[in-house]
């Protein structure tokens, strides 16, 4: 979904259901959305920029409604964040509940491949702090090459 369309959708739904609040992007590769109510009472809805780009409008709308339900039930549903109070609110907001996405839609920034056979071994979104390709050996069939190298792919 295009970011500007997602931004306007999130803001419109926040105004419609919450009345006021903030919208922010984050760069999460594993969490589509997040809701936060600060001690001061600020209501903040976060969406993942990369996962929004990798998914369609129906899914993003459901994620936004999912997070708005958290904002609206924050104080009543403290113990069970996806409990009956939250679920009732989510259904009232007409969320479909079909929030399934593949975080693999976001490509790795760093990858470890075997230079001999090309086998992919591992990927990271951020440069790993401790990764020495020398400690890896290829697991592909009979290759077994040792001393692999880490490279930035995007």
Descriptive report:
- With 154 residues, the chain is α+β, with helices and mostly antiparallel strands.
- 30% of the residues lie in helices and 19% in strands.
- A hairpin with a 6-residue loop joins strand 4 and strand 5.
- It has 4 helices and 6 strands, in the order αβββαααβββ.
- It has 2 domains: 98 residues, Zincin-like (2-Layer Sandwich), CATH 3.30.2010; 46 residues, no CATH class.
- The model has no long low-confidence stretch (mean pLDDT 83).
- A 3-stranded mixed sheet has the order 1-3-2.
- Helix 1 packs parallel to helix 3 and helix 3 crosses helix 4.
Strand order of the largest sheet: 1-3-2
The helix fraction, in percent, is: 25-40%
Number of helices: 4
Based on DSSP secondary structure assignment, what is the total number of beta strands? Answer: 6
Number of domains: 2
Straight-line distance between termini: 21 Å
CATH homologous superfamily classification of the largest domain? Metalloproteases ("zincins"), catalytic domain
Low-confidence stretches: none
Apparent shape? elongated
Helices and strands, in order, run as HEEEHHHEEE
Main sheet? Answer: 3 strands, mixed
The helix-and-strand class reads alpha+beta
How large is the radius of gyration?
Answer: 20 Å
Q: How much strand?
A: 15-25%
CATH class of the largest domain: Alpha Beta
CATH architecture of the largest domain: 2-Layer Sandwich
Mean pLDDT: 83
Q: What name does the CATH topology of the largest domain carry? A: Zincin-like
């Amino acid at each position: 979904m295009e970011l500007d369309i997602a931004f306007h959708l999130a803001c419109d739904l926040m105004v419609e259901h919450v009345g006021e609040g903030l919208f922010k992007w984050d760069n999460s590769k594993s969490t589509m959305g997040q809701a936060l109510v600060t001690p001061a009472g600020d209501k903040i809805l976060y969406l993942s920029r990369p996962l929004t780009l990798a998914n369609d409008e129906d899914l993003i709308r459901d994620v936004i409604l999912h997070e708005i339900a958290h904002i609206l039930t924050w104080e009543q549903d403290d113990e069970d964040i996806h409990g009956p109070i939250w679920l009732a609110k989510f259904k009232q907001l007409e969320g479909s509940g079909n929030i399934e996405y593949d975080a693999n839609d976001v490509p790795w920034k760093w990858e470890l491949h075997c230079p001999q056979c090309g086998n992919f071994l591992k990927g990271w979104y951020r440069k790993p702090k401790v990764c020495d390709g020398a400690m890896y050996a290829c697991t592909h069939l009979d290759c077994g090459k040792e001393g692999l190298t880490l490279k930035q792919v995007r």
